[in-house]
From TrEMBL:
TPR repeat feature ranges: 123-156, 293-326
Keyword Calcium included in the entry's annotation: no
Cited PROSITE patterns: TPR
Keywords from the named record: TPR repeat
SMART domains for this protein: TPR
InterPro entries the record matches: TPR-like_helical_dom_sf, TPR_rpt
Name of the protein: TPR domain protein, putative component of TonB system
Any Pfam family matching the protein: TPR_19
Native organism: Lysobacter capsici AZ78
Keyword Repressor: no
């Protein structure tokens, strides 16, 4: 770091004597970005007479926009470069990444395919193609793209981690665990591998390991929706409900189209006896997918908790028709059965809730009953 400070000082001195030298300004901006001094780097670049139009400064300004999450501005910057005839693999890659961050998946895919057709194959492009296929929920295609990246460079850190996540999302859990472990042995801070390892530790109720893994991921990526989702569920399991609710709210802001995170937020709200907020969360999930069984089950659970057992039964039927294993619907059914005096059937159904669920629904159910003042029999 000390050597980098010396270099920054030297470059500032050189630029002061030649303030319109684009190459010097770009070198100084690069040195400042290496220290995460992005605002200073931006000021240097914008201080040039042609700072927003010359290709070197314009590329760096677009990348600073990308780093700061100003994805539409970044896309506009990269498009401007291409339109003025400044085109290379790095520009196309970052343009596609900016499009993907805005969830313009088809545009991002088209940009990547154009880059693959025009330039030499590069691991970074195949990693980005893998990310695009993950967002499309085309998991086999994602794994294929990441395998291609690793054929080009077996040591590519991002390819290893994103491949672990693709395997995980494809429900190939044993392969995902091995891939995440192997990646973290070489690259202990790789984000996607941390997500996979953290989630699997959470599912195995190894809360200490899960906490360490999610915290490592969030240290470098504080707005990672999936890391926030896992960490919020961990806090919920530790019964730190105010913190869990805050974390999961942050998660749904960062990742508004992830149904499972809306469900986790709803559980946290229910455990705080806030049924209205929980209903809002389930309805957000419903807006994303009207055919998701657990969402219908969650809405049925709200009806059951409010004592509207007829409406709850209708919701339970819809949920179980869509997903016979929907845990929220089955829990709602236990409340309806209890309310109608069918206690033995309710107990039997409650006993079935534990197997196959990554989170301890039975425990949540008992805590929810205590929160709502429903006495155990």
């Amino acid at each position: 770091m000390e050597r980098m400070d010396v270099r920054v000082t030297q470059l500032r001195g050189f630029l002061a004597t030649d303030p319109t030298n684009i190459n010097l300004a770009c070198d100084l901006a690069d040195a400042l970005c290496a220290q995460a001094e992005y605002a200073q780097a931006e000021a240097v670049l914008r201080g040039l007479p042609d700072g927003e139009t010359a290709p070197g400064p314009a590329f760096r300004l677009a990348r600073i926009d990308l780093i700061h999450g100003r994805h539409a501005q970044a896309e506009a910057g990269y498009r401007g470069l291409v339109e003025h005839g400044h085109d290379n693999l790095a520009i196309r890659h970052d343009l596609a990444f900016a499009q993907l961050c805005q969830r313009h998946v088809d545009d991002a895919a088209a940009t990547v395919e154009a880059a693959l057709a025009r330039f030499e194959p590069a691991p970074a492009l195949f990693v980005l193609k893998g990310r695009i296929e993950l967002m499309r929920e085309r998991y086999d295609e994602a794994v294929d793209a990441l395998d291609r990246a690793l054929q080009l460079d077996p040591d590519d850190e991002a390819a290893q981690g994103v491949r672990a996540l693709a395997l995980f999302d494809a429900s190939r859990f044993e392969e995902a665990a091995v891939a995440a472990r192997d990646c973290l042995l070489r690259y202990p801070e790789q984000h996607e591998a941390l997500l996979v390892a953290g989630t699997m530790s959470l599912w195995q109720s190894d809360l200490d390991s899960a906490q360490a893994l999610f915290e490592r991921g969030l240290q470098r990526h504080p707005n990672s929706g999936r890391a926030l989702s896992g960490y919020g569920q961990l806090q919920m399991l530790r019964n730190d409900l105010p913190a869990a609710r805050d974390t999961l709210h942050h998660a749904v802001v960062a990742m508004p189209d992830h149904i499972g995170t809306w469900h986790a937020l709803a559980w946290t709200q229910l455990l705080q006896n806030d049924r209205d907020a929980a209903e809002t969360s389930y309805r957000k999930a419903y807006e994303l997918d009207r055919n998701f069984g657990d969402t219908h089950g969650g809405l049925a659970l709200i009806d059951a908790l409010r004592g509207d057992y007829d409406a709850a039964e209708q919701g339970i039927k819809r949920a179980l028709r869509l997903d016979p294993q929907a845990v929220t619907a089955r829990y709602a059914k236990t409340l309806v059965l209890e309310a109608r005096g069918e206690n033995a059937a309710a107990d039997a159904l409650m006993g079935e809730l534990m197997p196959g669920s990554p989170l301890p629904v039975h425990e949540f159910a008992q805590r929810l009953k205590a929160t709502l003042g429903i006495q155990p029999r």
